[in-house]
Structure formats: structure tokens, C-alpha cells
């Protein structure tokens, strides 16, 4: 096993029980109300509840609002705080716009959602692609964002891999091969994934993403299959390739990055790379954790973000 070098400023957390909570698609458990908000790019489905110091939770490319529910369980529903869990355009129950994924459009949709709910400012939690979206929201709407937490965020290494796919076969092979495969198969990949799930082979495909795929509750893999959107994935990768990460230097709010030591979609080196762009960054490295920190170790994530 190769040793992974970490910056001395990274807080390294030895985690506890692995993936202890299922994914739950029942919004009533957390007193969430489902609302469909008209936005300039089309309707966006939101599960939300009123309360002080609201949290805006943004899922990744194989997620929806429900993939945050293990974290909600770990954080006791996040107390009495307000919650806004968005199905980003083209994911979950939100229909896809007619045009490709665009960060400005997504940020505009989120601003419209917050305005519709009467929310002035939020703390943003973003997973994977949702972390990228959260950072962009902090760039274009800084008065709305009190803080950003990147949970297994795809940031610098992913953007570089999207720009240079041949080189990325060495630096970020899992992301690069998945992108290539989905680019070829398109939406036909979804029935294939469902078929693999029915015959019990899905863990083989999902194994690189999770540190201990065989320990996952079935609901986690079911959500992974249901929520992966191949076309939107490739669109998001294309957007990351063209994005100027230097824009993040203008972010003034507190930013926390939580990463898994075993993440194959990002690199531990991303923590230092993001810190070079955002000097106020606080970093947390989780042992025994892949690309879904909020599912694999929700108790640690909740604790490190001050949600418990």
C-alpha cells in the first residue's frame, strides 16, 4: 500500500461504523414539504422546511435530495434549522432543461428557489458536482451564501481531468473511464445498470466509488442506479473542463472541504489545491472513506460540520 501524503493542516479523522444508515425517500420523516418552483430553466423540485439558519443541500451526479438522508439521520434531522434539499435541473424529479448543463443557469435556478421560499441567506452543503455548484453560487451570489461545505467535492483534479482526458487516464482513471463510457452509451446506460442491479452485479460496478460496497444498505445502491444521469454527467464534466477555477479566489465566506482518503473521483491533493485558491479553507480527511462521505461516514461529517 502506498502512503498518501497529506498537508499538516488537514484534520485527519478516524471514522466509526461504515454506512450505518439507509437512504430514505420519505420526506415526512424530516417534516419536509415538496414544492415545484418555476425557474428560468424549467421547474425545480425542492423538499424543504422553514427554520432558522437554513441549509441548502446540493447532491452529486448520482444523487437527488434523498441521498442526503443518511446525513439527516446522523444529525438528528439537523435540529430545528431550515432545510432546502434541491433536485438540481435534470436530476431526481426535476425535468432536464432543453439545453446542456450550465453553471450560471443552475445558480440562477437556485437563486429563484431561495427567493420563492423567502430565504435570504444559506449555508451550502454540496456533494461531488454539488460542491462545484456550491462554490460557483458563492462566486455569483456572495450575499446569499454564508458558508460552503464541500463533501467529497470534485474540484481541481476533476476539472483538470475533464480538460485533459488522455493524461487523466493516469491521474484520475475512474472518472475518466466513467466519462468515456457514459459518453458512448448515453442514456442507454441506465437500463443496463438496472439490469446489473437485478442480477446482483451492481456492487462490482459501484465498488470503485465506495470503500466497502458490500457493507452498504441496498437502498444506497438502489439510489445510485436510480439517480445517475449519464447525459447530465457528461454535460457537467464538459462544464468543469471550461470553468475558470481562479474565480474561486473571490470567495470570502468560510469554506470547509471534507474528503475521503480512498476517493477515486477526487484526490487528497485537491485539499491543498483548493486552499491555494481559497486560503480560509478548513480541511478534513476521513479514513476508510470513498466518494460518498455523507453516506459512508455521516456521523463524522455531521460532527465535523457542527451539525450535531
UniProtKB/TrEMBL annotation:
Gene3D superfamilies tied to this protein: alpha/beta hydrolase
Keyword flag Hydrolase: yes
InterPro entries: AB_hydrolase_1, AB_hydrolase_fold, AB_hydrolase_sf, Epox_hydrolase-like
Alphabetized UniProt keyword annotations: Hydrolase
Gene Ontology MF term list: hydrolase activity
Domain AB hydrolase-1: 54-298
SUPFAM superfamilies, A to Z: alpha/beta-Hydrolases
Repeat listed as a keyword: no
PANTHER family: MONOACYLGLYCEROL LIPASE, MONOACYLGLYCEROL LIPASE ABHD6
Protein name: Alpha/beta hydrolase
Organism (species): Curtobacterium citreum
Amino acid at each position: 500500500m502506498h502512503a498518501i501524503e497529506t498537508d499538516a493542516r488537514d484534520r485527519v479523522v478516524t471514522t466509526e461504523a461504515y454506512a450505518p444508515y439507509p437512504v430514505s425517500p420519505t420526506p415526512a420523516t424530516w417534516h419536509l414539504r415538496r414544492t415545484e418552483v418555476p425557474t428560468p430553466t424549467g421547474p425545480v423540485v425542492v423538499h424543504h422546511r422553514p427554520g432558522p439558519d437554513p441549509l441548502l443541500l446540493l447532491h452529486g451526479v448520482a444523487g437527488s435530495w434523498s441521498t442526503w438522508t443518511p446525513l439527516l439521520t446522523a444529525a438528528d434531522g439537523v435540529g430545528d434549522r431550515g432545510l432546502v434539499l434541491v433536485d438540481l435541473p435534470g436530476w431526481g424529479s426535476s425535468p432536464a432543461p432543453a439545453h446542456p448543463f450550465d453553471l450560471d443557469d443552475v445558480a440562477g435556478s437556485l437563486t429563484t428557489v431561495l427567493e420563492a421560499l423567502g430565504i435570504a441567506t444559506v449555508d451550502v452543503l454540496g456533494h461531488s458536482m454539488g460542491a462545484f455548484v456550491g462554490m460557483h453560487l458563492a462566486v455569483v451570489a456572495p450575499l446569499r451564501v454564508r458558508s460552503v461545505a464541500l463533501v467529497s467535492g470534485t474540484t481541481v483534479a476533476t476539472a483538470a481531468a475533464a480538460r485533459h482526458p488522455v493524461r487523466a487516464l493516469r491521474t484520475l482513471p475512474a472518472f475518466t473511464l466513467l466519462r468515456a463510457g457514459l459518453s458512448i452509451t448515453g442514456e442507454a446506460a441506465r437500463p443496463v445498470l438496472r439490469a446489473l442491479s437485478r442480477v446482483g452485479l451492481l456492487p462490482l460496478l459501484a465498488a470503485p466509488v465506495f470503500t466497502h460496497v458490500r457493507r452498504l444498505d441496498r437502498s444506497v445502491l438502489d439510489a445510485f442506479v436510480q439517480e445517475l444521469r449519464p447525459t447530465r454527467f457528461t454535460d457537467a464534466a464538459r462544464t468543469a473542463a471550461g470553468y475558470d477555477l481562479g474565480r474561486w479566489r473571490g470567495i470570502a465566506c468560510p469554506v470547509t472541504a471534507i474528503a475521503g482518503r480512498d476517493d477515486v473521483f477526487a484526490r487528497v491533493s485537491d485539499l491543498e489545491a483548493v486552499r491555494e485558491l481559497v486560503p480560509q479553507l478548513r480541511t478534513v480527511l476521513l479514513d476508510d472513506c470513498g466518494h460518498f462521505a455523507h453516506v459512508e461516514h455521516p456521523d463524522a461529517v455531521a460532527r465535523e460540520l457542527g451539525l450535531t
